[in-house]
Specification:
globular, 0% helix, 5-stranded antiparallel β-sheet, 6-stranded antiparallel β-sheet, Chondroitinase Ac, Chain A, domain 3, Neuraminidase
Length: 556
């Protein structure tokens, strides 16, 4: 690890709200990633399992899991907790509808997704302990926190056969459910699909796999155009092969396609997710035990709209026991996995490359040995990870969030710096600097001029690594690219967006500037550093608390 000095601005409120600004420093890696000490969510006598994280548009994080609670002779209960703006997790509560006579619903193998209505949509294998029958069950947690009535998902056979459900929701509110179904003694498994229409009616089931086989782990993701994407595992000759199929609205499922991802006997599809712009992300683990030492990898494949799945790539040569993937508001992948008693993490740059994996957690045995993993990314770039510890049987969670500063060393060969939130990229060409230079990106709060809306605000500073002296000019212009999402510009006239700099007296627009409204990005070139803001016109003016920029003996 290369050691570099990092500086942070901390505002501490004292004496009735007066702010004392303190500049702190410590040595760390270039990307400043400080994960919270893991917190214990569940506290039960029994074992917990299957945590699923979802972040909503208000940056609330929702967690669903199954829990045996008391080690009594019954299936696990379903439980819920959330993390709001305070950063504290709520006390676990049982998932139940009003009038349910006992603590809550029994279930396992939960699938959960955020719908366009801001509600959580869930399916699970529901154990009807009272009559001995099982079913796949659906419930919704509305945006106002109330729970809907429970509904049984239609399935092929009226006996305990359906299992392993997953769920997705189209932009129009259509709910898609896929599951594995065993059609009867002497037969093999199939993958089935059923929809809940916006009217609330369920359609008939459709068998996606036309030929019976040993089909496992159906994974579903619905993109922002309403196309459902399915990936499942077919077990043949002691090997696992991945197949994919898709269904556009009002069309039938395409024929299954073998993804040809070098199957081994220990391949497993772990997680599939969808992101903005029609992006899809798939992660899994490969364990090849035919050689020694074992040939292991954490694998990734992605898909863009109207394109095929990318060639599999190895994110790390680790014999990972668990892996999970989530997408941020720009549709980029964030991946976590467990290996050698540690939680590892990597994420995609705007170009699609993955950062070097870093360790997110390795401090305590109770936080290790995860049986399940889940990751969610909120709209401000905060990453949230949850797992079930096989050590103590409880659900744990950690997060890295907030407006974090990021630094990067730029060499004579150039370099690129990415904001923690993923919304800003600063790219330096070769020979922009004559010696190694430490560039710092710090999110800022600025006051919007009259008639303007602040979309993004930050400062850039630079100093020589050799002696810490400030760098104010560059031999070659560097380029700033600002990314934004459609949800951010609901009250902004998109074509008026511009990148502004602070000239010590007022905000001044950088010209020329390029705006790409198709790919939602703004680009500008410049040769100096200061405070910046992305401003636009329209809607009500948004005001922010203005904090002065603190630097090491320089002014912007």
């Amino acid at each position: 690890m290369s050691e570099k000095i990092k500086w942070f601005l901390v505002a501490i409120l004292v004496n009735g709200g007066s702010a004392i600004l303190i500049l702190l420093s410590f040595s760390a890696q270039a990307q400043i990633e400080i994960w919270q000490v893991p917190v214990q969510i569940s506290d039960t006598d029994g074992n917990s399992g299957g945590p699923h994280l979802v972040a909503d548009l208000q940056n609330n994080v929702h967690l669903i899991w199954s829990d045996w609670i008391d080690l009594a002779s019954h299936p696990p209960y379903l439980q819920y907790s959330s993390r709001g703006s305070t950063g504290q997790w709520s006390e676990p509560e049982f998932i139940r509808e009003l009038g349910w006579p006992i603590k809550g619903y029994f279930g396992d193998n939960v699938g959960v997704v955020l719908g366009p209505d801001g509600g959580l949509h869930m399916v699970w294998e529901h154990y009807r302990y009272d009559d001995g029958e099982d079913s796949i069950t659906y419930i919704r947690r509305n945006a106002d926190g109330t729970w809907s009535k429970v509904e049984e998902v239609p399935h092929q056979k009226e006996w305990p056969a359906a299992s392993q459900p997953d769920i997705g929701v189209s932009p129009d509110g259509t709910v898609h459910v896929v599951y594995q179904d065993w059609l009867g003694p002497g037969t093999q498994k199939t993958i089935q699909h059923v929809m809940r229409l916006p009217s609330g009616a369920w359609t008939s089931t459709v068998q996606v796999t036309q030929v019976e086989g040993d089909y496992l782990h159906p994974m579903l993701a619905v993109d922002d155009e309403g196309t459902a994407h399915l990936i499942y595992t077919k077990k043949t000759d002691d090997q696992n092969e991945f197949f994919s199929a898709s269904k556009k609205p009002v069309e039938n499922w395409t024929g299954p396609i073998n993804m040809n991802v070098s199957p081994t006997s220990e391949n497993s599809v772990e997680q599939l997710t969808s992101g903005a712009g029609g992006r899809l992300h798939l992660v899994w683990t490969e364990w090849d035990q035919s050689v020694f030492p074992w040939n292991c990898s954490v694998m990734y494949s992605g898909k863009v709209r109207s394109g095929g799945w990318s060639a599999p790539r190895s994110l790390a040569h680790h014999c990972a026991t668990q892996v999970a993937v989530g997408a941020d508001r720009f549709g980029r992948a964030h991946v976590v996995w467990h290996y050698d008693g540690q939680l590892w993490y990597t994420y995609q740059s705007p170009e699609g490359a993955f950062t070097n994996p870093s360790i997110a957690e390795d401090t305590d045995p109770y936080h290790q040995f995860p049986v399940d993993l889940s990751i969610a990314v909120d709209s401000q770039g905060g990453r949230h990870v949850s797992w079930n510890s096989n050590h103590d049987g409880n659900i744990w969670a950690t997060s890295i969030s907030g407006a974090l500063a990021v630094t990067e060393v730029i060499t004579q060969g150039g370099g690129t710096l990415y904001a923690f939130s993923g919304d800003t990229q600063v790219e330096f060409p070769a020979w922009a600097v004559s010696e190694d230079t430490l560039v710092s990106f710090t999110p800022q709060k600025g006051t919007a001029p009259a008639g303007k809306v602040v979309l993004n605000a930050f400062s850039l500073t630079a100093e020589r690594v050799s002696d810490g002296s400030p760098v104010t000019d560059f031999s070659e212009p560097y380029e700033i690219t600002i990314y934004y999402s459609d949800t951010e510009i609901n009250n902004v006239e998109e074509n008026t967006l511009g990148l502004y700099w602070w000239n010590k007296n007022a905000w001044e627009i950088l010209s020329p500037r390029e705006i790409d409204t198709v790919n939602n990005q703004l680009t500008a070139s410049l040769d100096h550093m200061t405070q910046f803001a992305v401003l636009g016109e329209g809607g009500e003016t948004t005001y922010y608390l203005s904090l002065p920029l603190v630097t090491r003996g320089t002014s912007p």
